[in-house]
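WARN retry 2 of 3 for item q-0093 after timeout on previous attempt; input resubmitted unchanged.
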Amino acid sequence: MEFFNQMIEIFIYMGNNWSHLIELTIDHILMVVYGVALAVVVGIPLGILCVKSEKLASVILAVANILQIIPSLALLAILMLYFGLGFTTVVVGLFLYSLLPIIRNTYVGLKEVDNHILEAGTGIGMTPMQLLAKIQIPLSLPFMMAGLRVAAVIAVGVASIAPYIGGDGLGREIVSGINGRDNIKIYAGAIPAALLAIIADLVLGKMQKRMTKKTT
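OK item q-0093 returned
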């Protein structure tokens, strides 16, 4: 009974503060979109570079892996020393955290392309760039989308600690609730953040399945 009463209180609070929560949700989404988009712009070329050179692959993947294992709050605190408090630091942190799944999945996807298909392309006179653009990248899109899916879900979670280094987003409501020992506020921030992660996973998962069907 206590659980249901608390749920009712949470929904009443969310209803009374819906405009504020929507504003925080938009900030949260923007941080995630900017961070992941930057990771796509940088990560896909790095993944392609990994396929071209196995020596570079070991270095690039090792660096991306090290970035991934640094605790998120520690990474953001380090970035804060250079970028200062606020939105930019959070976006750069999300960008760094999103790199590994995108680089690794691009690399694996390109490596998984059947050599016979590449040989057939070479046989009809396609250049390496044409092979990459017309065969390798289209066939590896499901892997790339899987990397994007993982990166997006991770970014939604990491963005929740943005207020500790001056950022906004739904984490602001969670941190405010923690500081004030107010469970209602904590849930009012945590529930939309969890829903964002679930929605990102479902939408990108569906896109991944469609791409898999098209390439098989």
